[in-house]
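Lab notes, practical 5.
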Amino acid sequence: MASPVPQAAVIPVRDGRICLVTSRNGARWVFPKGRIEVRQTAPQAALTEAWEEAGLRGDLTGEPIGTYRYEKRGRTHHVTVFVMDVVSVTNDYPESGERVRDWVTPEHAAELVDEPELKALVRAAFGIEVPVGSNLRSG
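Output from the prediction step:
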């Protein structure tokens, strides 16, 4: 069995709002995320993805807020998630022609992302309570 593909993701924050981008095919809202390359740290990969996928530069707020796993093309991907304070935004970035960028509330971001573990990480990091009786507990 192959080892998990290491990835890093960033939750970009500016003025209390979170930046999401569309997946390459435009079907889903995601956080900037990508593979951690050889000789690259998880924080470096997270900052690189923020720039390439969303045109954002900033500072990571510290240690990762957590990790999650997902399956893609028969492989497990293990993602380390960071929060980034955005200091600059540009409309001219490597994947600007492939993705749409939007700024939403943390509550809305937690609703829009697909992966249940990632939803839970967003809720925990931003103090979002799940309503009692809600089906959001499982994702």
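Observations recorded by the TA: The radius of gyration is 14 Å. Residues 5-128 form a domain with the Nucleoside Triphosphate Pyrophosphohydrolase fold (CATH 3.90.79.10).
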